[in-house]
Amino acid sequence: MSEKTGGGVKRREFLKVVGASSAALATAACAAEDTGKLIPYLVSPDQTVPGVSTYYATTCRECAAACGLIAETRDGRAIKLEGNPDHPLNHGALCARGQAGLQGLYNPDRFRTPMVKEGDAWKAIALDDAINRLSQAVAQGRGAAGNAVFLNQHESGSFPRFLDSWLAAFGMPAHLSVDAEADAAAMEANRRTYGVSWPSLDFKAAKLIVSFGADFLDGWGASVPQQLNYAEARAQLDAAPRFVYIGPRRSLTGLNADEWIACNPGSELAIANALAGKGSIQDAATASGADAAALQRIATELSAAKPALVLSGVTGDNALDVALAVAAINQASGAVGTTILSAQPITSFDGMSRTDQVLAAVERMRAKQVGVAFVRGVNPAHSLPRAAKFAEAFANVPVRVSFSSYPDETTELCTLIIPDLHSLESWGDAEPVRGTISLQQPTMDPVFAGTMGTADVLLAVAKKDAANAAKFAATDYRTWLFSTLPGGDKAIAAALPKGIMAGSLGARTTTVAAAPTAAPKAPAIAATQGDFFLVTYPSPVLGEGRGANKPWLQELPDPVTKIAWSSWVELHPETAQRLGVDRGDIVEVKTAQGTVRAPALPYLGIHKNAIAIPLGQGHRSAAQMATFQPKNHDPSNVQWGYGRYARALGVQALDLLPLGTDGAGGLVLTSTKASISKTGDHRTLPSTEGSARQHGRGIAQAINAADLNNPERPEHEEIPGDANHAFLPGMRSPVAADAQGELGSPTSANQGILKGMYDPADSRGMTKRRWAMTIDLARCTGCSACVTACYAENNIPTVGAYWQNASIWADERPGFNIERGREMNWLRLERYFEGNLDGKFGVDFETRFVPMLCQHCGNAPCEPVCPVYATYHAPDGLNVQVYNRCVGTRYCSNNCPYKVRYFNWFGYGESDRKQYAFPEPLNWQLNPDVTVRGKGVMEKCTFCVQRVREAENRAALEHRDVRPDEFTTACAQACPSRAITFGDAADPNWSVTQVARDRRAYHVFEELNTYTAVVYLKKVNHPAAGAAAPRG
Amino acid sequence: MATTAAPSRTVERPNIPSAAVRFPAIKDYEQVDREIAGTLRPTLGWFAALGIAILCMLIGATTWTYQIHEGLGAAGYQPPVMWGVYIITFVFWVGIGHAGTLISAILYLFRAGFRTSIYRVSEAMTVFAVMTAGLFPILHLGRPWKFFFLIPYPNWRLIWPNPKSPLVWDVFAILTYLTISSTFLYIGLIPDIAILRDREKNPVRKAILATLSLGWRNSDREWRHFTRAYLFLAAFATPLVLSVHSVVSFDFAMALTPGWHATIFPPYFVAGAIFSGIGMVFTIAIPLRKAFKLEHYITLNDLDAASKLCLFTSMVVGLAYLTEFQVAWMSGNRFEQDYFWNRVFGQWAWAAWIMLICNMVLPLSLFSQKLRRNPTWLFILSLFINLGMWFERFVIVVPSLSHEFEPWQWGSYKPTWVDYGILLGSFGWFFMWFLLFIKQLPAMAMSEIKEVIPPRMKHPDPQLEHELDVGYPHPSETGEYGTA
User: Fold this and answer.
1) Which of A393, A744, A931, B97 is 20 to 30 A from A318, alpha carbon to alpha carbon?
2) Would the CB atoms of A852 and B141 count as touching at under 8 Å?
3) Domain range holding A582?
4) What is the pLDDT of residues A329-374, one digit of tens each?
5) Minimum mean pLDDT among A269-283, A723-737, B108-122, B359-373: which range?
6) CA–CA distance, A828 with A878 (Å, rounded to integer)
7) What are phi and psi of A553, to 5 degrees?
């Protein structure tokens, strides 16, 4: 053609050039920023397409359990963590802490380079220099046994073995494998009774679950598999086991229980013995302050329940005795092999050191017997009680090396920092269950070039040492790991896509066998001075403090109290009334060891003789810190005190505790009484809770198990004027765009005949899908993993940091925006209390959790009021928000009965503002498929429209329809209770259609005729025989 | 309508609406020109007041600039209370804007004589109040620089405003009202501008006034056209008094929110608007009357008559308040019932009681003729009415939003200095325009007053002079006009 028409640019050529260059520009524009290159790879790795995700299977290291991960990476960066569906522990689910691993990877306060302390100042050095310095220190310190201490975060897998072999090569004792959250007493009892550290628990098989303070949904043991199983158990509805929780404080697990027996701390043993028939019920009732009749009833139930599942997570000085007593009950009820699967143990916790071993090491440091100390991933300066005087002892060690990535308290006390790689950047493995190895592989290049995997550092040090160079010939840790894993390179390569491989790393025992005798035993709590028992507990979100530097976790309201970015002191409303303390009044809690001041929180779920303070906050820096400048922050200005998000936030409750260990060598967290006094100060608690009561509005509905099959109780309330629901019966509502038409009319003769635009013959031909969701409240435990999943998927900014308020004359206090209700959680977890309106102690109450998100109403009140069509209805049932159109009248939010719309009060997404929620490199995590919203626009749950469209596009490319259940939303994907189902309600092949037809289904505020697309299934209660039915 | 002492003789002037009003202290046309044009001389007090108004306006402007830069989070919004001081103040100013048109248009049609002396002030107040109110819907936007998305015009974005949204109706209502009320004000001003033109010595000012007066020559033909045009515009503006505030009330009534979702809102809002407008007329006219020494123009009779209108609208508003409670009580709707219980006994009880006392209870004092004729009391009462009407809108906006369907999202609200700064700025803006107006153009309709007073006779009738003397002792002798 061009020959015929002569010179010049031909139209077709012109179009080609324009098309190609715009495509190139578009591609470059879509890629994550800050690469310095148009395309991240000069030579693209195979199968890497810009703008298309690559998925790596790896292993989660956020707690000791070692769940399987699928890391989604885009253009060479991890952007989302999800559970690995093939993994034997978590089966695709993932808790909030696991998902927040990404914010550890991209934490803005991560060390960028090794650092050395010279005088009082820290100096950044090169990696080579750091390795040389470490070699010298190790060379100087080698020799006499006991000259070194290596404290490593407990992990399962080959690394501990590698580490011990390295330490041994340099004449150092084996490392201590520390987990500050682990329940040593339960593990010890398990080992003695069942021969394993942690058996799998099968709640499904149980007829009755009794928990003595065992918070198996909060982080006690392997919480994700436990939660998966518990939810399955409760989903058996009328056949589900009843759950009784015994303890001084109702934790998240306790709130999920059907009945709570409040007891004095320390009296659990008496109750356990009484339930086992070894002691008198009356004595137990006297000791615990619990109702004798209730205890008697539970004893009777327990003797009839074969098998039962009784768990102990007591944190008192007699924890081991309770755990052993409980194990005896289990054995008697036939639990072993049915509900307690000791043949299928969770091996992740094997080989864990005990706190008394750590304390013994601290004493050796104090006695100047330690020449060099290493810490990696642990933070004893924060996680040991102040009474342990760790800092003082640690200062007696001449060479203190930290492999920590973050500026935590212990690292600040060190002399040399060689920052480790994050688990998402490095190789590793774990054996979470016997016979299955979970592989950990790098999902991306290291975020900071100055960081290096500790194993590789150790290899480099060994290579510099003449005596050890030959022993550690492996070029890097990957080579070493591959050489030791069963099956060799080929098997590993085959297993990597799945993340798991068959095989075993061999049994691992406690690394330091002999328990030291010098460890102080905790005194009996009753003997201490004070008016109230002091209960401290690891936060279900922040743990003992590890999570505090991750804004997602700080922003995630505590599942029980719904407070974020703060510490608090829980006390019973009756106690509060007696002391004249209101919610938010600052109280001073005093023990023989110290005092802390924190806002008070009257909470129904605490014994009237007890007060409780969560652990996790109270991170401090030893050095005086200059004011943090959120704008133009210089990374070399290290934010000691565990980073900008954690520092100087809340209080450290461990300051109050005497140093004491239980019979199993674990730290006793409930070890002292305390006195409490009002200070006169007040601090509004940053809480997402408006009213804790439903006021009879039927948002979270429940039904008693006995009524499930009762024909006298109608399944659905009749609403006058309600539309006929013959089409899509599960939805019980007309569908999108027809809500105001004939389908919505209660008088239409065509009711149930017309399918509106969902009819295949419909002339509009717009869609045949109606995206919808079901949420099963019988499964939901309120763990809030879905909330964090939503933050991760949808680029939701965190707004609670103290600098995220306005600039002039504004309160700069953490959580201020949350106090003002400005949190952005597109999906929030509401926690409603039922019963005990008077707040009387001893009257049981019920808790209902409701995940509340945009209901994608068929007849949405937000849509007609928007003056600029920024929110409108998509043909497939989605209620769509167009950010670019939004001018920010906020009328849509005013008119939303569910209050699920969130407004950008500040420029959280603009990097030149102090309110910026994603300071470099946190912004690397942002999902490229989702807009980062600007200031002044409204946003809300989109039903993960980017996933919907991605699936539709993929299907279109493959010339097929979207397959039923082909994809799901981020919340449903993460949910460790499998409470959320998403799909097309107009197609019976999707699970959501089946679930929505459940007899328990209801819509929130159905009487408003909003025709929501979210169907809730009523919670199922199992009240004690003779108890009143729940209301609401 | 107007209360007048029985005149012994009246000069009938059919078809002139203010015929029934008497200004006994005004002897002749020249006095009107002299006294009213005399108010246009700037005084030190005026400069001081204008300075304060401009300062307040600048504070508001600076605060708004800061708010635009920082984001709406600088204001005190606490979700679910997504609307706050700005929308409250918007409705407040729109409401104030209503009395002007009511007085100038509706009372004109009804031939209510007492309007003559106060209508110009009210009309100017209307225009400036609407100008103030019109700022707030823009000011409260998350992205105020995109406000033109609400205006219907063909554009490449292919975005058309949503005709279902009451906020779009608002745009039309406010713009229409601003157009009509400012036209009405201007038309009424033309003969007066001509008077000023004729008295003006400064050639520049004279030229400007000449242009503004559109060459008015005081001819019969011009007057015929003028009165026709004025009547037409009065008839045109009258429905707007009812419609504009009805539309504003739709912002609330069209929503689902408990406390908003009520059919009573349009009449309730219109009555409230007139009530608040008359309150503001008192707030402005009483000090003005004193400062300009115009007690014999804005007479106690006029104030008395306006007070009766104020009392009437207060009772309408009070009835609406009580009706809301009755409807909630009888609705069987637990959301409504819960909300209204919360309104008077809940966290916002203080605001509701300010509203009820200021708007329902205190105006009942106007049943007393003594208080109706006491400008000091009327001024104090008017301040309470202004406060009460601001709080009426507060009670409608904030408690409703903070106590909606979903208890988990119940919240609170506390404005910050930014809200207060902009609120202050709105008063500064309003009074700046108003103060500028009263020194440029007459605050009283000279030509209309002249229509009312008897013309000077070429040959005075001794009998008439005597009767006038007997029937109308000079007010300065009796102290009838008070000392306020």
Assistant:
1) A393
2) no
3) 525-624+631-682
4) 999 999 999 999 999 999 999 999 999 999 999 999 999 989 899 9
5) A723-737
6) 19
7) -80, -35
CB contact under 8 A, B404 and A899: yes
CA-based nearest residue to A732, from A743, A748, A747: A743
Residue A211 distance to chain B (closest CA, Å): 29
Q: What is the CATH number of the domain that holds A649?
A: 2.40.40.20
- Two tokens at B329? 């009580």
Last residue of a domain, which of A467, A502, A537? A502
Counting the structural domains of chain A, the total is 3
The one-letter code for the residue type at B446 is M
A208-212 and A242-247: which strand pairing? Answer: parallel
Residue with tokens 């009143």: A1028
Which pLDDT belongs to residue B296? 87
Question: For chain A, how many residues are written?
Answer: 1032
For residue B11, pLDDT over 60 is answered with: no
Please count the other Cβ atoms lying within 10 Å of the Cβ belonging to residue B369: 12
Residue at a domain's end among A666, A682, A698: A682
How confident is the model over A726-776, as pLDDT tens digits?
Answer: 556 556 555 544 555 566 566 666 655 666 666 667 666 666 788 999 999
Contact yes or no for A865 and B410 at CB 8 A: no
A310 and A345 co-located in one domain: yes
Segment A656-675, tens digit of pLDDT: 999 988 888 899 999 899 99
Closest CA to A132 of A573, A553, A600, A461: A461
A353 with A512: CB under 8 angstroms?
A: yes
Note the ipTM here.
Answer: 0.90
Residue A861: list chain B partners with CB under 8 A.
255-256
Task: Output the six-digit token pair for A577.
Answer: 């009334």
Under a CB-based contact definition with an 8 Å cutoff, are residues A394 and A381 in contact? yes
Q: Distance between CA atoms of A910 and A926, rounded to whole angstroms?
A: 13
Q: Are strands A372-376 and A672-682 parallel, antiparallel or unpaired?
A: unpaired
Both tokens assigned to A316: 């008192």
Give the dihedral sign, CA B209/B212/B215/B220. negative
- Residues 445-484 on B with a CB inside 8 Å of A are none
Residue A50: how many CB atoms within 10 A of its CB? Answer: 19
Check whether residue A554 and residue A587 sit in a common domain. yes
Residue A499 is encoded by which pair of tokens? 């993340």
- Tokens coding A813: 């206090």
The DSSP code sequence of B349-387 is: HHHHHHHHIIIIIGGGGGGSHHHHT-HHHHHHHHHHHHH
DSSP letters for B95-125:
HHHHHHHIIIIIHHHTT-TTHHHHHHHHHHH
Residue of B69, B72, B408 best to disrupt the A interface, most CBs of A under 10 A: B408
Q: pLDDT confidence of A65, banded at 50, 70, 90?
A: very high
What residue of B is the nearest CA neighbor of A816? B78
Q: Give the pTM.
A: 0.91
- At which residue do the structure tokens 């045949």 appear? A768
Contacts of A933 in chain B (CB under 8 A): none
pLDDT tens figures, A102-143: 999 999 999 999 999 998 899 999 999 999 999 988 887 665
Lookup: tokens for A982: 């998403």
Mean pLDDT of A878-898: 94
- Alpha carbon B262 to its chain centroid, in Å, reads 25
Helices (H) and strands (E) in chain A, counts: 29, 37
How crowded is residue A823: how many other Cβ atoms within 10 Å of its Cβ? 25
Indicate if A394 and A434 belong to the same structural domain: yes
Long-range contacts of A266-270 (CB under 8 A, 24+ apart): A266/A316, A266/A317, A266/A318, A266/A524, A266/A525, A266/A526, A266/A533, A266/A670, A268/A212, A268/A213, A268/A312, A268/A314, A268/A316, A268/A318, A268/A322, A269/A318, A269/A321, A269/A322, A269/A325
